[in-house]
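Standup notes, structure subgroup. Blocker cleared on the heme C input:
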Amino acid sequence: MYQLLIRMICAIAFMGLTISVSADTAVNSPGDQTITLKKPPKILAEWYKPANKRQVWLHTMFRLRREILAMNDYSEKGKQAELEKWSQKFIKDYKSIAEMVPQWQDYLDLDKLDDLESAVKNHEYSSISTILKKTSKSCMHCHDDYQTVATLMFRSPVFNERIISEGFSGEKITYDEIMVQLSKSVNRINIAIKDGYYSDAHELIEPLEQQLEHLSTSCGDCHQEDEVPVERIMGASQSLLPELAELLELKEQRPAGGKLGEFAVKVCAKCHSIHRLSSDLKFIFD
Ligand code: HEC
Ligand code: HEC
Ligand code: HEC
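Run returned:
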């Protein structure tokens, strides 16, 4: 739990989220701190898959950013027709935020839309960027409160109960279960190396390879179009484990320990940094 918290804090700091951290004196352990994250209104889910055919919310956001850029660029160049076109698109998309999520109405600065419309109409090009800067503050307020959590909730894969079906042994197991197996295998090899039981360590390599092979059959569920990330991780294990086996045959304790560490970083930790972290974080919002 403690580790999870540390990872969460790192992740949250990494993602640049504004968090409120308060030292609560009423808590049993005096060092305890709490992190408060806001959960978006349930209705937001309707603008994402699977409730929706498309990622409507996200694409509205991408359009808003593009529209602001277009308006800034065209106002600098004084291109009236384009400015009118992009400002109308922007106004429509900006208003659609509260149509999609009425609870978020208060984040919007709708008055600025009138200012924008009249600046465009009256060819007041130099005031456009100032108006847009002010409008953008409303974007940031909402992003500070909800962006990271929404990305995790609606666009990050979950793994905990995911079934890994057609593995080496044909049995059905979950990610949670295979992770426990992998962790035991790696730790048993580690213990055996530390205590000088090199042939025991050597014998444990093959089952570990099989567990990883089993795990790798699940990657394609989501990575069918881009196999490079999977190759990188699984390829590392295919070269590092035979190297480890060789060092164990030579009874080279320190180099074998080092090789196992390298394997844990390049195979386990690399995948965890992307998938376990987002999976753990997502889990706390369910
Ligand atoms: C009321 C809330 C709210 C407002 C206002 C808002 N956004 Fe967003 N925005 C979000 C949420 C929630 C996400 C996260 C969506 C996701 O990751 O799927 C997001 C994500 C984005 C992204 C995607 C970032 C990325 O690269 O992944 C962009 C771009 C964006 N918003 C632009 C804007 C702009 C520009 C404005 C203002 C004109 C704006 N947003 C106003 C809630 C808001
Ligand atoms: C898909 C890439 C991936 C790879 C490769 C991977 N893991 Fe994991 N691991 C995960 C995910 C995702 C979770 C979180 C599962 C969940 O949501 O419960 C996890 C969780 C764990 C956990 C925590 C299990 C629990 O129940 O709390 C352990 C321990 C673990 N992994 C060990 C390992 C070891 C050891 C290796 C390397 C031999 C490894 N993992 C390789 C993705 C991966
Ligand atoms: C449930 C769907 C899903 C499964 C299963 C899955 N991935 Fe991913 N993976 C993704 C998505 C989506 C991304 C893109 C980043 C993100 O949004 O988390 C990604 C990104 C990654 C990345 C980082 C991208 C990069 O280019 O380095 C790595 C590495 C990776 N996956 C490895 C694996 C491996 C290895 C497995 C199997 C053991 C696996 N993934 C299984 C969905 C999945």
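Discussed briefly. Confidence is low (pLDDT under 50) at residues 1-27.
Next: hand off to the docking folks.
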